[in-house]
Design the sequence.
């Protein structure tokens, strides 16, 4: 048998030692899997996961809408400083239109109201998701204890 180079010996020792020390749970917690997962439990877990995904999506959309609302607020301030007889470029969809300043202000107020309504709807949806997730957490933690992790 030929002797192994020192680097190979170290790598083999590291792999063996490292694999023996890697654990996600303590040994006493690891053996605590006596609870059987029923079909109903799996449905609750799946529902929780769907709600969590929906909540993250809603939060991302809310952040986008808040940034858009800030931009509209800034635009409102700028439009108030322009002359009433001036024509301004106003973005509608993908195009820009020349609108008189008073009409642009009315359109802007309407857009802000629509945006505020969307924020309220999404906020209500987020609250509903959080409420349902809280109820599922209580049920699942009562059943599985530390064997399940529903926190981020």
Sequence:
């Amino acid at each position: 048998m030929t002797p192994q180079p020192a680097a190979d010996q170290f790598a083999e020792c590291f792999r063996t030692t490292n694999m023996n020390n890697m654990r996600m749970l303590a040994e006493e917690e690891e053996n605590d899997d006596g609870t059987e997962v029923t079909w109903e439990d799996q449905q609750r877990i799946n529902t929780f996961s769907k709600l969590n995904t929906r909540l993250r999506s809603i939060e991302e959309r809310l952040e986008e809408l808040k940034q858009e609302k800030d931009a509209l607020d800034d635009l409102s301030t700028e439009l108030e400083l322009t002359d009433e007889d001036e024509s301004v470029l106003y973005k509608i969809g993908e195009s820009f239109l020349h609108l008189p300043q008073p009409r642009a202000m009315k359109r802007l107020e309407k857009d802000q109201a629509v945006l505020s309504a969307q924020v309220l709807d999404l906020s209500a949806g987020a609250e509903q998701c959080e409420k349902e997730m809280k109820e599922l957490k209580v049920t699942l933690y009562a059943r599985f204890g530390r064997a399940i992790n529903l926190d981020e």
Remarks:
- Residues 69 and 116 are 8 Å apart (CA to CA).
